[in-house]
Design goal:
Strand content: over 45%
Number of helices: 0
Distance between the termini: 40 Å
Oligomer: single chain
Order of helices and strands: EEEEEEEEEEE
Radius of gyration: 13 Å
Number of strands: 11
Length: 118
């Protein structure tokens, strides 16, 4: 059974940094795209970044230059380094893995909460 478990969320001051981790189990994920999304209260889930098996990355404009996605295939883990956190960044952050033919992600984690104090 595939599982994605996020960790690293918490409360940080505006301008600060957090690093989120997503540990995958149940199968190897070195050959699939992995991604981070977030969802703030009352808002739709928002794409943040993804990283392909090759290491190619793609970011939403809202986080470009501040967030960095990376992966450690040996540990089956993907990371999201978040710097210069802003008051608009608080949300539940979700890890996702494996893209279906329609582009949606197949596997999802349970999410980790990120809060930013001003």
């Amino acid at each position: 059974q595939v599982q994605l478990v996020e960790s690293g969320g918490g409360l940080v001051q505006a301008g600060g940094s957090l690093r989120l981790s997503c540990a995958a189990s149940g199968r190897a994920f070195s050959d699939v795209t992995m991604a981070w999304f977030r969802q703030a209260p009352g808002k739709a889930r928002e794409f943040i970044a993804n990283i392909r098996w090759s290491g190619t990355t793609f970011y939403a404009d809202s986080v470009k230059g501040r967030f960095t996605i990376s992966r450690d295939n040996a540990k089956n883990t993907v990371y999201l380094q978040m710097n210069s956190l802003k008051p608009e960044d608080p949300a539940v952050y979700y890890c996702a893995a494996g893209r279906a033919p329609d582009g949606s992600y197949v596997h999802w984690g349970q999410g980790t909460q990120v809060a930013v104090s001003s």
